[in-house]
Design goal:
The chain is an alpha/beta fold. The chain has six helices and 13 strands. The longest helix has 18 residues. It is globular. The model has no long low-confidence stretch (mean pLDDT 90).
Length: 231
C-alpha cells in the first residue's frame, strides 16, 4: 500500500501552517493513522508513505511501523512530484498490484474487494469512483433559438468522481518518469496510449475527502462509524 502524504494542504489554511494535513486529528488521532488502521483492519502490512511538506512530523510519529506491527518505508520527495510521481521512488515493487491512496481520504471500503475486481477485470490500472450528486440551485431553462422548450426547477445532476484510491500494476509504475512532476491523471492517459486496460471500481461505501475545514469537522463526526464498519 502506498499512502500519498506529501501535499501542502493549502485549502485548510492556518490548520496546516505548522503541520502536514495528514497529521490533523480525526477522532483524536492523526488522519494518516486512521487511514493506516483501515488498511491494517483488512490485513495489509507492507506500506510506503510519500512525504514532502514537514515530513519530519510524519516520519517521527510513524517510524518503521513496528508500533502497529507493520512495515513502513518512506518515499521522500525533495521537490513536489505531483499525485503520482512519488511512485517512481519505490525501490522494490514486486509482482503484485499496489493500492495507492491519497493521504486525505477516509473510507470504510473493503480494499480486498478492489483488488479482486482489479484482477478479475485484468486491469492494469483501476480507479475507485463513486456517484456524486449536485443540485443546481436555480431553475434550468432549455431553449431553441428564442423558444422556451422546458423548465426544470433545481434539477439534480449525477457524476462519477475520482475518490483518490487506485490499484496499479507494477509494470505501469515502472513507466513513471523519475524526478519529474507527474499526476495520476497523466498516468491514466499514458496507460491508454500504450493500450493498457483501464477500469473503474464503483464504491458504495462511506468516503470523504478531508480537504477543507467543513470536511475535517464531518470526518471527526463520522470516524467511529468508519472504524466500526471495518470491524
Amino acid at each position: 500500500v502506498v499512502i500519498m502524504a506529501g501535499g501542502l494542504g493549502s485549502r485548510l489554511g492556518e490548520l496546516t501552517k505548522n503541520i502536514p494535513k495528514p497529521m490533523l486529528r480525526v477522532g483524536g488521532i492523526p488522519l494518516l493513522e486512521t487511514i493506516l488502521m483501515s488498511f491494517i483492519e483488512c490485513g495489509f502490512y507492507n506500506f510506503h508513505i510519500s512525504v514532502n511538506y514537514k515530513k519530519e512530523f510524519i516520519m517521527d510519529y510513524f517510524g518503521n511501523g513496528s508500533k502497529w506491527g507493520v512495515d513502513i518505508k518512506y518515499l521522500i520527495e525533495n521537490k513536489r512530484l505531483g499525485t503520482a510521481g512519488a511512485l517512481s521512488l519505490i525501490k522494490k515493487i514486486g509482482k503484485n498490484p499496489i493500492i495507492v491512496t491519497n493521504g486525505d481520504v477516509m473510507t470504510s471500503m473493503d480494499y480486498h474487494s478492489l483488488l479482486k475486481h482489479h484482477v478479475k477485470q485484468k486491469s492494469k490500472v483501476t480507479m475507485c469512483v463513486r456517484e456524486y450528486e449536485y443540485t443546481i440551485p436555480y431553475g434550468v431553462v432549455e431553449v431553441e433559438g428564442y423558444e422556451l422548450l422546458a423548465l426544470r426547477e433545481k434539477p439534480v445532476k449525477s457524476f462519477n468522481i475520482n475518490t483518490g484510491i487506485y490499484a496499479i500494476e507494477p509494470e505501469i509504475i515502472n513507466r513513471i518518469p523519475k524526478d519529474v512532476y507527474y499526476d495520476m491523471t497523466t498516468l491514466f492517459e499514458d496507460a491508454a496510449k500504450i493500450n493498457q486496460k483501464r477500469c473503474v471500481f464503483f464504491m458504495g461505501d462511506y468516503w470523504i475527502d478531508v480537504g477543507q475545514v467543513e470536511e475535517l469537522a464531518q470526518a471527526n463526526m463520522d470516524v467511529n462509524v468508519v472504524m466500526d464498519d471495518k470491524q
